[in-house]
Amino acid sequence: MYRTLADSVRLRDICLSLAEGCRMALGTKNRLHETGVACKTHLREQHSDQLELVTEFIAEIEGTGSKQDLTAWNQFSDLRRSQAEMLQRVEAAFQTWLNGG
């Protein structure tokens, strides 16, 4: 099957490297999902009297149908991943959107 021990070691290293990449990708995907959930929850809680407008804003950020991009919420995040600052940016964007900006 393998010609040498070195070949089997290389194959093992490749498999381990691929597995590590999959774990990292899953972590990134989870973080992006959590960012979107936090932003949408914040807007829905803070503007419970304007849920139709919040829903419209969410659809504008994410898109709809085949053009839906759930990672679009990442535009409000930064390298420090401060949730408070992220929610302030989401709030500012929503207020600008409400005012027609």
Would you kindly provide a brief summary of this structure?
The chain is mainly α and 101 residues long. The chain is 69% helix and 0% strand. The longest helix has 42 residues.
Shape: elongated
Sheet with most strands: none
Q: Mean pLDDT score, rounded? A: 81
Helix/strand order, N-terminal first: HHH
Helix/strand-derived category reads: mainly alpha
- Number of helical segments with 4 or more residues: 3
Q: Roughly how many Å is the radius of gyration?
A: 21 Å
How far apart the termini lie comes to 65 Å
Number of strands: 0
Specify the helix fraction band.
Answer: 55-70%
Which stretches of 5+ consecutive residues score pLDDT under 50?
Answer: none
Question: What fraction of residues sit in β-strands?
Answer: under 5%
Count of individual domains: 1
Give structural notes.
This protein is an all-alpha fold and 101 residues long. 69% of the residues lie in helices and 0% in strands. The chain has one domain (5-98). Helix 1 (5-46) crosses helix 3 (83-98). The radius of gyration is 21 Å and the shape is elongated. The mean pLDDT is 81.
